[in-house]
C-alpha cells in the first residue's frame, strides 16, 4: 500500500510500524510479490512511477507524492511484460513492454515502447505502424523538458532487408510523431547518442565472420567512419564509451585490462584509455554508473562487494548518503532515484534479513517520509535470519565467496543444509534480501549460496576459471562448499539438499545425476537439462553463431555434461518445476528431462516429481506461482530432507 502521508523523522518511528509476529507467519508471507519495485521520480521530484503488486498481479503505478492515494493511477498490462519505465519530462513517461506472438508458425518475443501521460489519460504505442520485432531501445531522452526521445528500432524481421538493422528516429512521445535521424546500416544493431541527442556511435557485428566494427563521428552532422574492428574468434574486443563528456573527443569507459572492470577516461580520437577514474575497493568489478544532471559527467558508480555499494562523485549526494548511512545503523540505505536537481530522492532502507521499505526524502525539509513497505508481513522492525559472507577454498586452492544464512534463534550446529547455486551462471549472489533463502531458513535450514568459479563481479581471471567447466569444476566448487560447511560443524553431511533456478536448476540436476550420494534431494526450477537443445533453440536468434562459440567455450562437450543423457544415473530424488510461459528457458528442458527419467525406470512420486505451471514465467511474476512453488518445495523437503 502507498503510505505517502506517514512521516518518519530520522527513522525514529520505523520500528514502530506493525509487522506480523513470527509465530503468525505463514508460507503466503514469503510468497508475496513486492508491494513496490524500482520507483522512479519525475525530473521535478513530484511524481513517482513504480511497479506495484495489487492482489497478486503486477501493475504500473503513477502517483503524485503530495496528493497521496487520491492521485494514484494504476495501469494494467494484460499479457504484456513490463520490462522498464522512465520519465521523459514531468508530464510524460515511457515504458518498455514485451509480449509473445506467433510469426510464421513459431513463437516470437516482441518489444515495444509506450508513451504514457502521467495522469493515465493517454497511452501512445510508439512506432506502431512501422516497428518489427525489437523496438524498445531508447538511446536518448531530452533533458530540456520537451517530450522527445531517440528510438532505435527494426522495421523488418527479414535479415536480407535493410530494415532488419535498426534505424534511429526522434519521437515525440505525446503524439507518436517520428522524425528520421539515422538510417539503418547493415550489421549495426546498436546506436549510441550523447547528452545533446547527437547519435555519435554505432556497433556493427557480422556473425558469419565473427567480426565487430565501431562506427564513430564527432558530432551529429558528420559522416560515420569505421574507427576500430575486432575479430571475436581471436578474442579481440573494443572499448565502447559509457557516456560522452562535454569535452569534445572525450568519453568515459569501462575496461578490465587491470583485472577488474574499472572506469577510465577515454580519448575518442586516439581510441586510448587514459587516467583511471574509479575501481571498486577490494577486487570487484564495477556495475552501472549514475550520470550527472547534464548527462555529460559522473554522479556516481555502483558496485557489489559482499553487498551492494556505491561511490558518489557528486559531493551533495555523497553527504546525503553519509547522513542516511549514519541514521539507519546496520541497515543499508540506497539512493535509488533522484529529481534532476538532486533535492528530492527515493531511498531504499533494508538489509539481507528484511526486505525494508522505500522512503521519500526532500532535502530542503530534512525529513524521510515512508513511501511504501515492500512486504506487508515483514516490516522495517522485523529481522529474519542473519546473513553473512564466508570464504572457502576449492579443491584446487581457488578462493570462493559464499553467502551463508543461518536460521534465527537456532544453534548453528549440525543443521540441515540447502545448497543454493545462483543462476546465470555469469551472475552472483550477495548479502541482499532473498525470499527463497529466508523461507528455507525460517523452516530451519542453513542456506549456502556459493559464487562458484565463472561467477560475475570478481574480475576477469575468476570469470575465466569457469570456461570449459560447466558441470565439472563449477560443480566441484558446489561440493567443496558443502564440505566446508560440514567441516565447520554448521551442517550435517547427511542432510543436504541442492536447490536452484535456471543455471542453478541445471546444477541441481547435475548434482542428482553425478553426485547423488552427497545430496538427500535436488530441486530444479526452470533448469537446463540439454545444452545441445538450448543451443539449437538459441540458433533462431540473431548472432547465434557467437552464442554457440561462447557456449562451446563454457562446455566443449555438450553431451558429456547434459543431465538428460544420463537419466539412469540419477540417484537422488528430484523435484522438477517449470513455467509454461518461460521465454528464457524453454519448458521442454524440464518436460523432456522428466520423460527421460520415466523411460529410465524412475518412479514418479518417489524418484522424481514434475510440475508444469501453466501461467508461470522465468521470473515468478505471479504471486500464485510463487506460492505454488513454495508449497510444493516445502512438501518435497519434508519428505526427503526434513528440518
Characterise this structure:
With 643 residues, the chain is an alpha+beta fold. It is 17% helix and 37% strand. The protein is built from ten helices and 36 strands. The strands form eight sheets. An eight-stranded mixed beta sheet has the order 29-30-32-31-33-34-35-36, with helices on both faces. Strands 1-28-27-26-25 form a five-stranded antiparallel beta sheet, with helices on one face. Strands 2-3-4-5 form a four-stranded antiparallel beta sheet, with no helix packed on it. It is globular, with a radius of gyration of 25 Å. Mean pLDDT is 92; it is low at 1-17.
Strand content: 35-45%
State the end-to-end CA separation: 34 Å
How many helices? The count is: 10
Determine Rg (CA atoms, Å): 25 Å
Largest sheet: 8 strands, mixed
What fraction, in percent, of the residue positions are helical?
Answer: 10-25%
Q: How many E-type strands?
A: 36
- Assembly type: single chain
Principal-axes geometry comes out as: globular
Give me the side-by-side strand order of the main sheet: 29-30-32-31-33-34-35-36
Q: Provide mean pLDDT, rounded.
A: 92
Instruction: Provide the low-confidence segments as ranges.
Output: 1-17
Helix-and-strand structural type: alpha+beta
Amino acid at each position: 500500500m502507498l503510505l505517502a502521508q506517514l512521516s518518519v523523522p530520522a527513522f525514529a518511528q520505523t520500528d514502530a510500524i506493525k509487522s506480523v509476529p513470527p509465530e503468525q507467519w505463514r508460507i503466503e508471507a514469503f510468497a508475496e510479490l513486492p508491494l513496490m519495485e524500482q520507483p522512479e521520480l519525475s525530473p521535478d521530484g513530484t511524481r513517482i512511477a513504480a511497479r506495484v503488486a495489487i492482489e497478486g498481479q503486477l501493475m504500473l503505478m503513477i502517483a503524485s507524492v503530495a496528493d497521496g492515494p487520491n492521485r494514484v493511477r494504476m495501469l494494467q498490462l494484460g499479457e504484456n511484460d513490463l520490462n522498464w519505465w522512465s520519465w521523459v519530462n514531468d508530464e510524460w513517461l515511457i515504458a518498455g513492454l514485451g509480449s509473445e506472438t506467433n510469426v510464421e508458425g513459431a513463437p516470437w518475443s516482441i518489444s515495444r515502447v509506450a508513451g504514457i501521460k502521467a495522469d493515465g489519460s493517454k497511452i501512445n504505442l510508439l512506432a506502431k505502424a512501422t516497428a518489427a520485432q525489437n523496438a524498445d531501445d531508447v538511446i536518448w531522452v531530452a533533458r530540456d523538458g520537451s517530450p522527445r526521445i531517440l528510438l532505435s528500432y527494426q522495421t523488418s524481421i527479414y535479415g536480407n532487408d535493410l530494415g532488419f538493422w535498426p534505424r534511429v528516429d526522434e519521437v515525440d512521445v505525446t503524439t507518436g510523431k517520428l522524425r528520421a535521424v539515422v538510417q539503418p546500416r547493415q550489421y549495426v544493431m546498436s546506436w549510441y547518442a550523447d547528452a545533446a541527442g547527437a547519435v555519435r556511435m554505432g556497433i556493427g557485428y557480422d556473425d558469419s565472420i565473427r567480426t565487430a566494427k565501431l562506427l564513430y563521428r564527432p558530432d551529429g552532422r558528420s559522416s560515420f567512419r569505421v574507427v576500430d574492428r575486432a575479430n571475436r574468434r581471436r578474442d579481440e574486443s573494443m572499448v565502447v564509451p559509457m557516456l560522452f563528456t562535454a569535452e569534445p573527443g572525450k568519453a568515459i569507459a569501462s575496461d578490465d585490462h587491470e583485472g577488474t572492470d574499472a572506469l577510465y577516461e577515454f580519448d575518442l580520437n586516439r581510441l586510448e584509455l587514459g587516467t583511471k577514474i574509479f575501481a571498486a575497493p577490494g577486487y570487484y568489478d564495477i556495475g552501472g554508473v549514475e550520470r550527472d544532471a547534464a548527462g555529460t559527467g559522473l554522479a556516481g558508480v555502483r558496485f557489489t562487494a559482499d553487498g551492494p555499494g556505491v561511490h558518489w562523485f557528486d559531493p551533495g549526494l555523497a553527504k546525503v548518503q553519509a547522513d542516511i548511512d549514519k541514521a539507519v545503523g546496520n541497515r543499508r540505505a540506497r539512493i535509488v532515484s533522484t529529481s534532476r536537481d538532486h533535492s528530492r530522492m527515493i531511498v531504499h532502507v533494508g538489509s539481507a534479513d528484511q526486505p525494508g521499505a522505500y522512503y521519500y526524502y526532500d532535502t530542503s525539509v530534512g525529513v524521510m517520509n515512508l513511501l511504501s513497505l515492500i512486504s506487508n508481513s515483514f516490516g522495517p522492525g522485523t529481522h529474519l535470519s542473519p546473513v553473512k559472507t564466508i570464504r572457502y577454498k576449492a579443491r584446487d586452492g581457488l578462493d570462493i565467496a559464499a553467502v551463508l544464512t543461518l536460521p534465527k534463534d537456532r544453534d548453528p550446529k549440525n543443521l540441515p543444509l540447502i545448497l543454493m547455486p545462483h543462476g546465470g551462471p555469469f551472475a552472483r549472489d550477495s548479502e541482499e534480501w532473498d525470499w527463497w533463502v529466508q523461507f528455507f531458513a525460517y523452516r530451519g535450514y542453513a542456506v549456502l549460496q556459493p559464487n562458484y568459479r565463472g561467477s560475475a563481479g570478481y574480475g576477469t581471471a575468476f570469470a575465466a576459471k569457469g570456461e570449459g567447466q560447466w558441470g565439472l569444476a563449477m560443480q566441484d566448487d558446489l561440493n567443496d562448499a558443502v564440505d566446508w560447511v560440514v567441516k565447520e560443524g554448521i551442517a550435517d553431511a547427511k542432510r543436504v539438499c541442492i536447490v536452484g533456478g535456471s543455471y542453478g536448476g541445471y546444477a541441481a540436476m547435475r548434482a542428482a545425476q553425478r553426485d547423488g550420494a552427497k545430496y538427500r534431494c535436488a530441486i530444479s526450477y526452470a533448469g537446463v537439462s540439454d545444452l545441445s537443445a538450448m543451443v539449437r533453440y538459441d540458433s533462431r536468434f540473431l548472432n547465434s553463431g557467437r552464442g554457440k562459440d561462447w557456449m562451446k567455450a563454457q562446455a566443449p562437450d555438450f553431451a558429456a555434461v547434459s543431465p538428460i543423457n544420463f537419466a539412469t544415473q540419477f540417484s537422488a530424488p528430484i523435484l522438477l518445476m517449470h513455467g509454461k510461459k518461460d521465454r528464457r528457458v524453454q519448458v521442454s528442458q524440464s518436460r523432456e528431462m522428466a520423460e527421460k527419467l520415466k523411460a529410465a525406470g524412475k518412479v514418479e512420486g518417489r524418484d522424481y516429481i514434475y510440475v508444469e505451471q501453466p501461467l508461470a514465467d522465468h521470473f515468478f511474476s505471479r504471486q500464485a506461482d510463487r506460492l505454488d512453488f513454495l508449497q510444493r518445495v516445502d512438501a518435497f523437503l519434508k519428505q526427503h530432507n526434513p528440518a
